[in-house]
Amino acid sequence: MRDIAEWLNRTPPSVWIQSSFWFIRLLQATHLLTAGVVSVSGLMIALRILGLMRADEPFETVWRRFAPWLSSGLVVMVSTGLLQTLGDPVREFTSTSYWLKMVLLVTGITLTVLSGRRLRSAPAGERFPVAAAIGAAALVLLWLAIVMLGRMIAYDRAIWGSLSLRA
Amino acid sequence: MSSEDLLGAIEHSTPAEWMRGAVAAMPIVESVHVLAAVTVLGTLLIVDLRLLGLLELREAPRALTRVSRELLPLAWLAFGAAVVTGSLMFSTSAHSYFFNTAFRLKMLALLCAGLNMAVFQLVTFRGVASWDVNALPPRAARVAGAVSLLLWASVVLLGRWIGFTKGYDFSIPDGVDLGFH
Questions:
Q1: What residues make up the domain containing B71?
Q2: Set of chain A residues whose Cβ sits within 8 Å of the Cβ of B55
């Protein structure tokens, strides 16, 4: 993995991003702002399944309000995230937090899409099955963890100790 | 007590010593701060977009009072967490934060966001009963929403900017100019 990261680090796009003072800052700032849009949109959908937010509205309505923000935010977030990875591949690929974040992100997206497909036809006020509630509670934790892990990438050894890929 | 004395006392306080001494303290506190900040931004974004008439479905606009009542407790909870974690971060190197331009601008943006919220609550929100369920609120409410959106985004961006201009190397002795300004 380190070899791939070091090869990527020498490619012209990576070198350009590394040498660009403003571009990397713009990427990080955009990534952070969209983190707010994505995580809170994801939270709203998960909290609706749990019956803690907009329980009087059909799930379909809540989905139609927040899913477009979630998906378009994700497009921006994944793009800016990939470009940041390209700009500093060794730092990212040797971070336990980075890989954990990627696994949780894929899980979070998959769980949200599955919830959307399964529950969209449910009427207002209907209680969802226990499995859906467990999935939604997991989603709340996932969105919170994804945001925190993003910040933790910078401190991999302090957080993970001997489990850090940088150790 | 001069501001110099106060900053020194903050830097030598028990929480500051603890933050500097525990290896994982800063990363964890900073991560919670980021999480709290994006939660404040995201929840207020929903309220602000409702004020701007941009979030709710045209055929079924949700009452603004309802949207506020549902989201403001979460926003305040996250804001409280951001203040606690932010204060802990500030205590570790109060001098360099205090003189950091991005930090000062962030505090100014926070103050303006608070004033905007106060004016909205005390003036515009008083007549909410007449436009609570309107898909498009009146101009004063839309302006308050747009200003709030810009200010909270600035708070988060300026917070990120502090990280670009200020290091967290505790081994650097006090009084050394690191060129943060």
A1: 3-165
A2: 65
